[in-house]
Specification:
This protein is α+β, with helices and mostly antiparallel strands and about 550 residues long. The chain is about 35% helix and about 20% strand. The chain has 16 helices and 21 strands. Strands 1, 2, 6, 7, 8, 9 and 16 form a 7-stranded mixed sheet that branches. Strand 20 and strand 21 (about 545-550) form a beta hairpin. Helix 5 (about 210-215) packs across helix 15, helix 13 (about 430-445) packs parallel to helix 15 and helix 14 (about 455-470) runs antiparallel to helix 15 (about 485-510). The N and C termini lie far apart (about 55 Å). The structure holds flavin-adenine dinucleotide (FAD). Flavin-adenine dinucleotide (FAD) binds near residues 128 and 203.
Length: about 550
């Protein structure tokens, strides 16, 4: 049985940063990932990472922009920590070898991003996540005496002792199907978001909400689950992302009549208003008949000098050519708002501690809450690094003062029985893929940019039915080697749990704030709704709702305009 001071589940940017910081603090570390670490979804991050590093910029300005972007739902103590620590994270990465863009004077160069009052996004062309992930992975390998990597191992369940403390996890080796208990003094979930709950989404197939559901199932509180971000520029049909970096470099949004419509919705910031604001503006243009016949509006990147596009936005040049047949340096490309990010997640404090003792969470799986109702572009990579580092350090310090727990390995037998039961399901029920498609399309129809009671209630009924259907959905592969059918069946269960918590949260919040836009409850209602919605399991398979206060340190809520 592998036993470590700190077990980290997930090897994207949050997990890798946590592993390095736990190792630096002297802990023995295991890091588990269901895919090779450099295939983690952080690799897709394109536009950059925010920090007030420029001498003319201030962390306070970054923090205020983040608070305003969150529509005042973000916890200001955590936002202050994130923005204060941001410059150090950029320098740490640069010193490790991340080749951030440099300007003509040789200094680190920035680009503008939405909702920011200064150009403070540091970037590597439009492959920022790729560049950072590979550099951190080199450091994991360098520290291989302290950090054991379990690549292509899938965590199925978290473990608890009789007092409810987390004592590690059960993981399945994807190569041969073997199940193993990973014993740990402290456990950090860094298993990413839940984009696949929607269809389409900008998120890859591996982003299935595993950690959120695993923590929820053992009693951890989730928070802000209703806050799901629709990114303003995704390709119709497949959901591929056209990075906000394009608008940061000067691209315009146009409706089918050729109007630069953002002038109407955000007269000061135009295309660089917050994402929720831009997505609603686009959806309004489309709904009111000023979009194109394919249900889109246009992003005109020809406003950016061609040479600059080819240098700084080369991945979206490829995406435009390969997936839309458009040369974005010559003509506008059709886009629409698409599901991109979940602001909610496992409720944590600013050291990553969840409501379950010895269980931590960091990155997109967690909700600190620094993003509140709406995340600013380029603040997520920052979140992974700042709170990954803090969780790793805190979990290590705690672990070094504790004895190793003794885990009862009988839980492995239970998980084994569950997996065998999945494999032995009789053929005939609905396919896993069909259930997943219906889930994604339902969420995209009823739990999207605009929401109302009737649509949310319908979505909830469908999710409940799909939960039933999922318990008997048959699979084809009964083997043990790289059995992705079994994994898909388990992931479907996680996605359905996450979907239900999103819908329940959205039904509960009766106002318009950030990404939660209830057309049946117009306006932001601070008197009643300036609070977080927490969701936990009450043992009866029905999400239990409670509330917690928003922390305000210095910025009282104001009207939000751009
Ligand atoms: C296309 C795209 C572009 C983006 N661009 C930007 C950007 O420019 N700037 C920005 O700030 N943000 C950006 N984001 C958001 C940002 O990339 C993510 O929020 C962030 O990278 C998430 O990192 P993470 O470490 O939390 O999770 P991930 O990188 O998703 O890593 C999750 C890890 O958990 C593992 N895992 C999951 N489930 C299990 C399981 N059951 N068992 C074992 N392992 C498991 C995975 O294998 C993986 O290693 C972008 C997002 C997308 C989709």
């Amino acid at each position: 049985m592998p036993s470590h001071d700190v077990l980290i589940i997930g090897a994207g940017l949050a997990g890798q940063r946590a592993a390095l910081s736990a190792a630096e603090a002297g802990a023995s570390v295991a890091i588990v990932s269901k895919v090779h670490p450099v295939r983690s979804h952080s690799v897709a991050a394109a536009g950059g990472i925010n920090a007030a590093l420029n001498p003319e910029d201030t962390w306070e300005s970054h923090a205020f922009d983040t608070v305003k972007g969150s529509d005042y739902l973000g916890d200001q103590d955590a936002i202050e920590i994130m923005c204060r620590e941001a410059p150090d994270q950029i320098l740490y990465l640069e010193h490790l070898g991340v080749t951030f863009h440099r300007n003509d004077t040789g200094h680190l160069g920035t680009r503008a991003f939405g909702g920011a009052s200064a150009a403070r996004t540091y970037y590597v062309a439009d492959i920022t996540g790729h560049a950072i992930l590979h550099v951190l992975y080199e450091q994991l390998m360098k520290r291989s005496e302290q950090i054991d990597r379990y690549e292509e191992w899938f965590t199925t369940d978290l473990l608890q002792d009789e007092e409810g403390r987390c004592t590690g996890a059960i993981c399945r080796n994807l190569r041969d199907g073997a199940l193993e208990v990973f014993n740990a003094k402290t456990t950090i979930l860094a298993s990413g978001g839940a984009g696949q709950v929607y269809k389409p989404t900008t998120n890859g197939l591996i982003v299935t909400g595993d950690g959120i559901a695993q923590a929820y199932r053992i009693g951890a509180k989730l928070m802000d689950m209703e806050m799901v971000q629709y990114h303003p520029t995704t390709l119709a049909g497949n959901g591929l992302l056209i990075t906000e970096g394009a608008r940061g470099e000067g691209a315009w949004l146009l409706n089918a009549e050729g109007d630069r419509f953002m002038e109407k919705y955000a007269p000061n910031k135009f295309e660089l208003a917050s994402r929720d604001v831009v997505s609603r503006a686009e959806q309004t243009e489309i709904n009111e008949g000023r979009g194109f016949s394919d249900g889109t509006v246009a992003l005109d990147i020809t406003k950016v000098p061609r040479r600059r596009t080819l240098e700084a936005l080369r991945e979206i040049v490829n995406i435009g050519r390969d997936f839309a047949g458009v040369d974005i340096t010559l003509e506008p490309i059709h886009i629409l708002p698409g599901m991109h990010y979940i602001m909610g997640g496992i409720k944590t404090d600013s050291d990553g501690e969840t409501t379950v003792p010895y269980l931590y969470a960091a990155g997109e799986v967690a909700c600190v809450s620094v993003h509140g109702g709406n995340r600013l572009g380029a603040n997520s990579l920052l979140d992974t690094l700042v709170f990954g580092r803090r969780s790793g350090a805190h979990a290590a310090a705690r672990a070094l003062q504790m004895p190793m727990p003794s885990t009862n390995s009988s839980r492995v037998a239970e998980t084994g029985k569950h997996i065998t039961a999945i494999m032995n399901r009789p053929q005939g029920g609905r396919r896993i893929g069909a259930i997943k498609n219906e889930l994604g399309e339902t969420m995209n129809e009823y739990v999207a940019v605009f929401r109302d009671e009737a649509g949310l209630t319908k979505a909830h009924e469908i999710v409940r039915r799909l939960k039933e259907e999922a318990t008997v959905a048959a699979i084809d592969d009964r083997g043990s080697v790289f059995n992705q059918d079994v994994i898909a069946a388990i992931e479907l269960g996680y996605m359905l749990d996450v979907a239900e918590t999103i819908v329940v949260g959205a039904l509960e919040r009766k106002e318009c704030r950030g990404a939660q836009w209830r057309i049946d409850y117009p306006g932001r209602r601070d008197d009643e709704w300036l609070k977080h919605i927490d969701i936990s399991m009450n043992g009866a398979d029905v999400p239990l709702v409670s509330f917690s206060p928003v922390t305000i340190t210095r910025w009282e809520p104001e009207e939000r305009t751009y």
